[in-house]
Each structure stands twice: as structure tokens, then as C-alpha cells.
Write a structure and sequence with these properties.
4 copies of one chain form a homotetramer. The first copy, chain A, is α+β, with helices and mostly antiparallel strands. In chain A, strands 1-3-4-5-2 form a 5-stranded antiparallel beta sheet, with helices on one face. Chains in contact: A-B, A-C, A-D, B-C, B-D, C-D. At the A-B interface, helix 1 and strand 2 of A face helix 1 and strand 2 of B.
């Protein structure tokens, strides 16, 4: 599991006075990016080699509102992983008191730049897999 | 069913060259707002009377990418509805050829400004219900 | 002068209850894109041929707030134009009563994909120039 | 001068492969919020007491593009300040090598919730003024 922290931006609120629900997907992404970085999988490098990884599904359940200026903590966990897809689950917490604000998941596929589904090269698979095994106490 | 059309904005794309997945939630919202307007339920009026309607769940499945400058059409349908919650489903289509780009759903609750769950006043319930019955050919 | 209309989205508001000021730059862009389209200059085509056109300066003066669900009209005018740069000015109006909400300008350069300044190919220059001359009553 | 750091988000890029120019205004805002916090002026507290502070002018000059995943540093400086308005200037730097990416300014007024211009209460003025004097080596 990888966690990132960030401070809620003014622009992320809406006229109901709380964070707009679409921003949680952007927070999920921040944690997903850090997870992949921990595996030394850098998205610009993937893109430069012609691999894109579109989101194919996202779900989010909202428990409590996030407010301007609060520190939020986003945790990402790799739930399912193959050379065909990546499934992450996420939790967003208010960092001050660990209240769960939202949880959700995303699924990515790998495609070439024409949108055709491809398999992730073994090199990247191995990198991600090592991080995942470390997470799971060494059990693949 | 209510449909809205809009043109994909440059700012809605990301460095993968297609629309960022978080924007579909904002497009769902545009269609949801129009559905409620068709029922003469105006969100600023609700908020002014102390009723907020946070999203409690959202899901989206992405089929094909939307691109800059394409016209997209967003359809909203009210699937489930009571004085406690609203459940909408959505389809996003490329308007030029009706290709389905994404589909999803949202669930809203009604709360007061302190976040306590309330029941939607009968007045608003009746307005939404008439639109929904009209949609369903008069069958409630 | 080219004008586009759009409806203020819920997500464009912030907790002060009005449209967040950063969104006006996105509205300017919508009008700029339409201006260029009127000249048959399509941004994806330019990018595909290795030409990018980064914004080098933007300014906006805000007169009145835009609110959720209002129709806004954005007018773009090409003020200065050469094969080295494009300078547009903009006005954002509340469409219902023509109240001026904001006005501003942007400046673009043309660069290659490595960020080196280039001159716009004559083909595109001519297209933009015809629209501009038409705007100015045929006087270049 | 107050500085904040943040990491460029994937969603902040556009199909030209760099950060969309509108996001710099959101980064300015992050630094402005921190400046006011350093003065113990909390925006939600101001809003709760009926004071809003709309941006009336913004300008930004872009020197170099920011890229996904880079750490940016945003510096805010209070240039002009009275009970009627706040004028900040900003610099955005790539934190790794201090390259200046953009610079700009904003102007805020103070209004009541009906948009009427008001003067900032002395309490808040004094708080901001102490931070500013500290910045200027004690010279008001």
C-alpha cells in the first residue's frame, strides 16, 4: 500500500461548500502514480515507448465530505494485476483524525497508441510485481 | 430520458491525448442538472432552502476515448427515486455516430447543511415524479 | 469576432458560490478554438504536423461574478497576428442581459515539439488572415 | 514571501503534453492561501463572517512549460495592501533547478455576500500587516 497526502485546494470546492465529487478520481490518480513510481514504472517513459493505460472502470463511494484546507491522505493498493490489466483500490482519509471520506477502485488496461489492447512488457510487469509481493509479505 | 450535448474542451484532454476520465463525472452532472430542471427542480433554490444532495456513489465504465473537439451527447435516466435518494444512470455517446463512449450511474442522498440525512420535501418529490412518470409512459 | 455560448457547470463554482476565476481562461480557450476553426485551422492537425502553440501570456479583469446555470457568451477577437504570434482579446458576457462579466487577452507563440520558436507555415497564416480580414471589413 | 511546493498532477496536463496554462492560477491560489494562513487569516472564517474576496484581476506570463510529475514551487509576495484590496505577485519555479516557469499577479477586493465592496475589518488588516512587515524587515 502506498499513501500520498495533499491539502484540499480552494478550487476543488463547489457551491455546496465541500469538495466536488469528481476530484476524488484525481486524488486516486495521484496515489496510483506514486504506487507505480515506487515500482520504478514512470508513466512518461511508458507513453514514450508507445504504451498507454486508459482507465476502463472507476467506482467511488463517498462517506463524508472533504473540506477546503484539510489534509487528505490517499491510500492505493494493487488488488489485481496481470500483463493485461491493473486493478487498484483506494481509500481517502482525513489525515487529522483518520476518518474515512471515500473508497473506490479503478481498472486500467494497456493499449498501444491506436487503442489496441496489448500485454504489458515483462520488464514493467516484473517491476510492479516486486512491489506487490513486498506489499503482500512476499507471497505472490 | 434527458440528453445534453457539449463539445469536448481542450482543457479536458490529458497528455495521453484523450479526455481525462474524471471529466465524465462532470458530464454526467450536466445531464443530471438538466433532468432536474425539466422537473422544475433548480439546485440553487434547493440549496437556498437548506437542502443539499451529496453524491454518495458513482461508477463509470469507459468503452472508447473521447477526443478534443468532438460533440458528445450525455443521456440521463432516473432509475430509482424516493424521498431519500436519487439514482441516475448515464450514457455518453459520440454524437456524430452514436458510438457509446462510457456508461455509469450516480446515487445522491438529501441532507441538511449539517450533513444530516433528510427526506426530500413532497413538493420537489412530486415534480420529479411527474417527469419520471412521463418518461415511463405514465406508469409510476 | 467569434462568439460561443455555454452554460455554467456546477463543478465550475467554488465555495464562495460563484464561478472560480480560473475557469474564465478555459472559456477564453473555447472561443479561441472556434475562431481558429472558422479559419479552418484545426489544432489536432497542427499538433500532428509538429506545431504547438503555447500560451505565453494571459490577463483577465473580472467585473461581475458568473453563477451556476447561467448562459455565458464568450467573444474572441484577433488583435495582433503574425507568423510568430497570435494575440486574442476576449469578452465574457451574461447572455441573458449582455452584462460584461470579464474581459482579457492571451498571447500565443508557435513552437516545435521541442519548444523551439518557429514561424507559422504560410498555409495556416493565410487561412487565419482571411478570417481576420473578413472581420475587419476587408482591410488587412 | 511564502512558498509552497506541489507535484504536477497527471490531470493538469493537456494533449500538448505539458501543464494547461489555466492551472497556474490554481497554483497561485495555493500560495495565496498559505500566505494568508501565515497571517492567521483563514478563508472559511472570513466567509463565515460574511466577507468574500473575489479576484478582480489576474495576469500570468509563461516562460517554460511545467511537466507531469515535476515538483513546482510557488512563491507569493504581497505587493500592495490596504483595507480595500490585496495585490499579490507570484513566481512558479521548477523546484529541482530553480528555473522560472511563470510569473504573475492577482488583485482581490473585499465584498459582502451581495457583492458590495467593503473594507477589511481592522482585526484582519492588522494580522496581514504584521506578516507583511516581517517580510519587509519591519519597514511598513
Amino acid at each position: 500500500m502506498i499513501a500520498v497526502r495533499d491539502k484540499v485546494r480552494f478550487v476543488e470546492t463547489d457551491l455546496m461548500g465541500v469538495v466536488h465529487h469528481s476530484n476524488y478520481l484525481r486524488w486516486f490518480e495521484m496515489a496510483r502514480v506514486e504506487y507505480l513510481r515506487a515500482a520504478n514504472v514512470l508513466l512518461p517513459e511508458l507513453i514514450a515507448s508507445g504504451i498507454v493505460f486508459p482507465i476502463t472502470e472507476v467506482q467511488c463511494k463517498y462517506k463524508h465530505s472533504a473540506h477546503f484546507d484539510e489534509i487528505i491522505r490517499v491510500e492505493a493498493r494493487l488488488d489485481d494485476f496481470s500483463r493485461a490489466k491493473l486493478c487498484f483500490s483506494y481509500r481517502v482519509l482525513r489525515d487529522a483524525d483518520d476518518v474515512l471520506l471515500a473508497e473506490g477502485y479503478t481498472q486500467n488496461l494497456f493499449t498501444d497508441t491506436n487503442g489496441r489492447i496489448i500485454r504489458l512488457p515483462q520488464l514493467y510487469f516484473d517491476r510492479i510485481n516486486s512491489v506487490r509481493q513486498a506489499e503482500n509479505g512476499g507471497v505472490a
